[in-house]
């Protein structure tokens, strides 16, 4: 244990890159001891100097992404003069990339957030995914980039959301023994179908939690091992019949499972 | 113009942090000239040495996140011996954080992806958001952390998805002059309602695109300036009556608008 420390995240854009570096590093320590304060869209020397003065006052460390090399240099110098720990996330890689490509950077902060075609593709993918979530729908299969199938509580929805955020139109279809799936699924057009499976005991736990959250009786067959095994067997048959790849999501985070899904398409 | 260059992203976990640093840097150059190859879950010296040999062969630059300081050091030394540009994303910040906190890191790769409470909170938020997307529903208002309102095509859905991915239960309610909103909205419980507005001319363009994408006639009143102005006036009245903050999403990316939303709650 120890006292709390502050990390200032400073960026000429939103600060998402610096934030993710800080999060990754902080996760290796006692995260409760680290408080992050974000300064976005910082673009003048004056603002940067004010931040340094505040940081000196708070004994904060500064992690920054600034595109302009002069601002970077001035910020660093000013911070070091006040004995502040300065971590430059973009400087080293931008300088090396300049050498590698033998070309100058455009020096435009926030360029990634521009409303270009790629952006509209992502918006479209997210809207698609919300529309075709948990639906037994032929049209979803036709229009999707990827179709996830699996029994209830195999992370179909969060996985689809993650994938859509990355620009992929992801649909998902629940597998329930009592409900037939669309015939088109068996044709597996463009090999876009991917199955999800999970350890029955973990699924049992997850479903019990789910029943609790919904205020329902824990005796429901939904969470019984017998029913779960039946459902997983049924899903297994369908996936074999389709001949699609199957990802086991047991103890995997959404990011990890999504990584596997992306490797398939 | 110039030839293509390769960047190797190497990580003992998924490589998302290194990837986002590479993307941010690459966006400042001609991104078509940069090809990224990702190596995830790399954990042994042998694997790292193989990657260096491949990189030397391809004249690739290496950007890496490794938690273990000895692996980091060995990788760096081996890479530099082969004259490879080596960018260590995690090393500098982890060393400084160790000093700042005066505590040792746990040295466990992928710790952020653990299935902890925070993780389940995010999954729950995503499922909530899919369920309460574009719904005129009292229950959504009751249960949400944040409720977005706005006319059609003001980015309600993508914004909610982004927020849910960050762990917030986000609901959205469409504003249409012909449909009454739930009474509860006017009470604005816990000040969770936020309005979205947009420039009428941009909305006109977006809706024309939308009609085109749906294969519908561009003459539809949906995209007419007259109708758009009526809708925006109506929305404006509702938002004033509620007294909620209003965010203008014109020319803003989802990330930027979401940043503003998060500042309000």
TrEMBL record, chains A, B:
Record InterPro entries = Kinase-pyrophosphorylase, PPDK_reg
Q: Which reaction does it catalyse?
A: N(tele)-phospho-L-histidyl/O-phospho-L-threonyl-[pyruvate, phosphate dikinase] + phosphate + H(+) = N(tele)-phospho-L-histidyl/L-threonyl-[pyruvate, phosphate dikinase] + diphosphate; N(tele)-phospho-L-histidyl/L-threonyl-[pyruvate, phosphate dikinase] + ADP = N(tele)-phospho-L-histidyl/O-phospho-L-threonyl-[pyruvate, phosphate dikinase] + AMP + H(+)
Single GO term (MF): phosphotransferase activity, phosphate group as acceptor
Q: What is this enzyme's EC?
A: 2.7.11.32, 2.7.4.27
One Pfam annotation reads Kinase-PPPase
Residue positions binding ADP: 150-157
Q: Quick check: keyword Kinase in the entry?
A: yes
Q: Which domain of life is it from?
A: Bacteria
Q: What class of enzyme is it?
A: transferase
Name the UniProt key words of this record, in alphabetical order.
Kinase, Nucleotide-binding, Serine/threonine-protein kinase, Transferase
Q: Which family does it belong to?
A: Belongs to the pyruvate, phosphate/water dikinase regulatory protein family. PDRP subfamily.
* NCBIfam families with a match to the protein in the record: PRK05339.1
PANTHER family annotated for this entry? PYRUVATE, PHOSPHATE DIKINASE REGULATORY PROTEIN 1, CHLOROPLASTIC (PTHR31756)
Function statement? Bifunctional serine/threonine kinase and phosphorylase involved in the regulation of the pyruvate, phosphate dikinase (PPDK) by catalyzing its phosphorylation/dephosphorylation.
Q: What is this protein called?
A: Putative pyruvate, phosphate dikinase regulatory protein
């Amino acid at each position: 244990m120890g006292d709390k420390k502050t990390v200032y995240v400073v960026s000429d854009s939103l600060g998402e890159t610096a934030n993710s570096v800080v999060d990754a590093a902080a996760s290796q320590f006692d995260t409760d001891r680290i408080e992050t304060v974000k300064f976005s869209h910082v673009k003048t020397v004056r603002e940067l100097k004010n931040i340094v003065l505040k940081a000196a006052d708070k004994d904060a460390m500064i992690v920054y992404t600034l595109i302009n090399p002069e601002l970077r240099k001035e910020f660093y110098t000013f911070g070091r003069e006040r004995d502040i720990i300065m971590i430059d996330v973009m400087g080293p890689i931008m300088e090396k990339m300049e050498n590698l490509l033998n070309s100058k950077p455009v020096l435009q902060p926030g360029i990634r957030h521009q409303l270009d075609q790629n952006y509209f593709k992502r918006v479209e993918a997210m809207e698609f995914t919300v529309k075709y979530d948990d639906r037994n729908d032929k049209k979803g299969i036709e229009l999707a980039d990827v179709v996830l199938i699996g029994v209830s509580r195999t992370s179909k929805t969060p996985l689809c959301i993650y994938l859509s955020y990355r620009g992929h139109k992801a649909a998902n279809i629940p597998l329930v023994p009592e409900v037939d799936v669309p015939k088109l699924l068996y044709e597996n057009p463009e090999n876009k179908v991917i199955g999800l499976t999970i350890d029955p005991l973990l699924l049992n736990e997850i479903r019990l939690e789910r029943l609790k959250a919904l205020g329902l009786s824990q005796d429901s067959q939904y969470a019984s091992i017998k029913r779960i095994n039946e459902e997983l067997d049924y899903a297994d048959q369908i996936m074999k019949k389709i001949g699609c790849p199957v990802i086991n999501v047991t103890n995997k985070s959404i990011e990890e499972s999504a990584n596997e899904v992306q490797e398939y398409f």
